[in-house]
Amino acid sequence: MTVTPASNIACHECDLLVAVPPLAPKQHAHCPRCNHLLTAKRPDAQNKLFAYSLSALVFLGLANAFPFITLNARGLEQEVTLLGSVAVLFTEDHRLLAAIVFASIVLVPAMILCCVAYVSLAIKVGRELPAVRTCLRWSIALAPWNMAEIFLVGILISFIKIVDLADVDLGLSFWAYTLFTLGVVLITLNFDRRELWNQLDHLHTRAAEPTHG
User: Fold this and answer.
1) For residue 152, which of 175, 118, 171 has the smallest C-alpha distance?
2) Considering the entire predicted model, what is its pTM?
């Protein structure tokens, strides 16, 4: 009987090095010092990540194809699109700010979704696809730069002031971006870097095993 050794994980909250044994489905490992969640083995997590990432990418595409909100004030109507708001910053000579906003609410989330979809696809098909480990590293490194949820919360808060000045109609783009943000949240809840690395290591080990004719 082969016993899989425990792996060491540094707690992200208190930096305590914890030896975590292999987990069974639905098991969670918490830091003994601060009770921070270290890792979890969630059932069917890879299929969920694949489905959520593809769905979120579709919704992100729709969010950029239709009006985000429509403002009506004193008989004047103006449509605002998601990318249009970035374009306004650019034309007002706030180019650096425009680039940061575009990257944090569109580009970075899209890159994370593509990387997660690619990694989960490799695990689903049982093959270590080219550059799959690089994609996993990028998805982890870019995660702190994803501001989709913060942007949506900021929009909802701004509605409180806007409704006193004009009539606001929420466009299809707004609802698509809301569903996209929900998909990003669901990916975050099911994303476990330790489990993903273990799955990729398993694929690498299996590919390296000699085949017997």
Assistant:
1) 175
2) 0.82
